[in-house]
Amino acid sequence: MKILVTGGYGFIGSNFIRYMLNKHPDVEIVNLDALTYAGNIENLKDIENEARYRFVHGRVEDAERLEEALEGVEAVVHFAAESHVDRSILDAAPFIKTNVMGTQVLLNSALKHGIKKFVHISTDEVYGALGEEGLFKETDPFRPRSPYSASKAAADLLVQSYFTTYGLPVCIARPSNNYGPYQFPEKLIPLMITNLIEGKKVPVYGQGLNVRDWLFVEDNCRAIDLILERGKPGEAYNIGGKCEKHNIEVVREVLKIMGQSEEMVEFVPDRPGHDFRYALDNTKIESELGWNPATSFEEGIRRTVEWYMNNSHWWKPLKERLQKESKGFWSK
Ligand SMILES: NC(=O)c1ccc[n+]([C@@H]2O[C@H](COP(=O)([O-])OP(=O)(O)OC[C@H]3O[C@@H](n4cnc5c(N)ncnc54)[C@H](O)[C@@H]3O)[C@@H](O)[C@H]2O)c1
User: Cβ(193) to ligand 1 under 6 A?
Assistant: First the structure.
């Protein structure tokens, strides 16, 4: 089967492509990526000469480029997005262009090409924020609160509408916070690890009391593969890590692994409208597709720390670029 993956040079997309090529000898991948600041060809250096892999440099909003990318393709997995909440607060325009308009152009092209399965990667953030209690179900209303999550909610609804209006066989994945190798060092966990390696303090929003549900990227890739293979058209699936933690707990875990003290933490003013808690009910994906997260946080975070310690050639140039931008991007 030939699959078009959009955003395959990003964090989750590159992990997904590697996962699929390793797991399925019959799978061919076309990766369409615009190579924005978040896209990095180094992410797939090890497989770029693989015969079953092809890269098309282009934007999802470009219907002509999509024509080329979709040749012979049976399925689409759509990761491409502007993905960083803090950037969306500074400027929402690129988020609307890529996440909303780009998704619509891609949906049209997929329809035209008779795509057999379209898996859209949405997010847990479309549901909005939770208090201390409760879990979001797939049927809960959308209450996005940042420009990022609003653009993702719009895309998610558009994807649903292409199923009900045109019968495009779509599935929607709504994963929680991913972590693991190849995550851009503006996000909480890689920022923290790389700062500590560089002997710098770790910025933490507010008092670090926001709660996120952490999902190791490999577990997410396995869930998306199952949704692609067996997800019911028209359905959405939550992908939760079953691993809720206050940000400060995550920070402490990393400090412990890296043998550093809490003096390395620097509390900084909170992000405007910072969602307090996200958490997902996984019942549907567990019962329909038999998926559960397999990697404990202890194992996943240890592997992640090790990866950043062994791959400073990968993240150092990215951090230098971020420092030149000198904006305070540091959490999801
Ligand atoms: N990272 C997470 O924790 C998380 C959690 C839930 C959902 N998601 C969703 O998963 C997807 C992937 O997230 P990520 O963290 O890997 O993102 P990322 O920012 O690391 O990567 C995004 C990729 O998309 C590409 N891209 C951006 N605009 C494009 C455009 N117009 N056309 C083509 N390519 C474009 C970038 O070059 C980059 O390679 C996103 O849709 C995001 O909303 C992420």
Answer: no
Diameter over CA atoms, the chain: 57
Q: Is the CB of 149 under 6 A from ligand 1?
A: no
Angle at 77 between CA 73 and CA 78, to 5 degrees: 120
- Say how far apart CA 36 and CA 25 lie, in whole Å: 30
Active-site positions? 124-125, 148
Q: Is there a single domain that holds both residue 153 and residue 253?
A: no
CATH of residue 16: 3.40.50.720
Ligand 1 atom closest to residue 332's alpha carbon, by position in its atom list: 3
Domain that holds residue 260: 181-212+244-275+296-323
Q: If you write DSSP's letter for every residue of 70-131 in order, what string do you get? A: TTT--EEEE--S---HHHHHH--HHHIIIIIIIHHHHHHHHHHTT-SEEEEE--GGGG--B-
**Which residue's CA is minimally distant from atom 7 of ligand 1?**
123
For residue range 176-209, list pLDDT tens digits in order: 999 999 999 989 999 999 999 999 999 999 999 9
Phi/psi of residue 68, nearest 5 degrees: -65, -45
Looking at the fold, whether 89 and 234 belong to one and the same domain comes out as yes
| Distance, CA of 185 to CA of 12 (rounded, Å) | 14
We report the CATH number of the domain holding residue 271 as: 3.90.25.10
- Cβ of 83 closer than 6 Å to ligand 1, yes or no, is yes
pLDDT digit string, tens, across residues 72-118: 999 999 999 999 999 999 999 999 999 999 999 999 999 999 999 99
CA of 206 to the centre of ligand 1 (A): 26
pLDDT digits (tens, 9 = 90+) for 281-308: 999 999 999 999 999 999 999 999 999 9
Does the beta carbon of 17 sit less than 6 angstroms from any atom of ligand 1? no
Q: 260 C-alpha to center of ligand 1: Å?
A: 31
Residues 81, 71: Cα–Cα separation, whole Å: 22
